[in-house]
Amino acid sequence: MTRFFLYYFCILIVRFCRMIIHFFRYIVSRTNPRSYFVEPIDGDYNFLSSPLKTFNRIMSDDVVPSFDWFVDVGCGEGLVGVFVALFKRKRVMLHDHQVYLARVVRWLSWGLLIPRVMVSTRMCDAYPSKSVFFCVWTSWSLRNRQRVVDKLASVFPNDSMIVSVTHPVDHESFILVKKMDYLFAWGSANVYYYKHA
Ligand SMILES: C[S@@+](CC[C@H](N)C(=O)[O-])C[C@H]1O[C@@H](n2cnc3c(N)ncnc32)[C@H](O)[C@@H]1O
């Protein structure tokens, strides 16, 4: 519990520092000297976290099998993964294509001695059996999602599950087991549970 709150506290500090750095970088490089509006974050780079209460309910569904590994594809600030590592005591693999986010999650988990956490910017070429893949790709572009679905299809172990938020996974390698509706910070969203075909 203490380590989770410390992790959360450090993430808040990182967010604050990032905001300050971005503000000064923006002041220096803005094209219109009379405007302080910043370009909106691209959907593929938005890193809003899933509410932990919602996440807990999603993972408590009967259809989720007992698992050894939790894989967050697009982990953002890693809060969900760290929660699983500390409270569910499972091994977690966190991926985010934003190098800076992957570094923050890796360094904080090392620094706070959070066990069972692995972080990488790219997906692996193989995953252990009994894994649950969690994909919160609400804002991702279709192209980005399709690339990750294709990759998932080639590395997905037989006895594993995909939990997909907002978008269904259209691929013959996966069978839809259940569809639910949950409340996220950005409103309600469909949650799809898939197993191997
Ligand atoms: C909304 S956040 C999800 C945060 C986290 N999964 C959660 O539920 O709290 C989406 C993250 O996906 C990452 N992302 C987008 N495309 C990706 C890709 N192709 N591979 C890995 N990460 C990706 C973004 O950088 C962003 O941090």
Structural summary, described in words:
The chain has 197 residues and is of the alpha/beta class. The protein is built from five helices and seven strands; from the N terminus they run ααβαβαββαβββ. It has one domain: Vaccinia Virus protein VP39 (Rossmann fold, 3-Layer(aba) Sandwich). Strands 3-2-1-4-5-7-6 form a seven-stranded mixed β-sheet, with helices on one face. Helix 4 (99-111) links the parallel strand 2 (91-95) and strand 3 (117-120). The protein starts with a helix and ends with a strand. The model has no long low-confidence stretch (mean pLDDT 92). The chain binds S-adenosylmethionine. S-adenosylmethionine binds at residues 44-50, 72-76, 79-80, 95-98, 101, 136, 140, 144, 148.
Topology:
Layout: H1 2-29, H2 52-59, E1 69-73, H3 79-88, E2 91-95, H4 99-111, E3 117-120, E4 131-136, H5 142-155, E5 161-165, E6 174-184, E7 187-196
Parallel strand pairs: 1-2, 1-4, 2-3, 4-5
Antiparallel strand pairs: 5-7, 6-7
Helix pairs in contact: 1-3
The structure holds S-adenosylmethionine.
The site of S-adenosylmethionine (SAM) has 23 residues, from strand 1, helix 3 and helix 5.
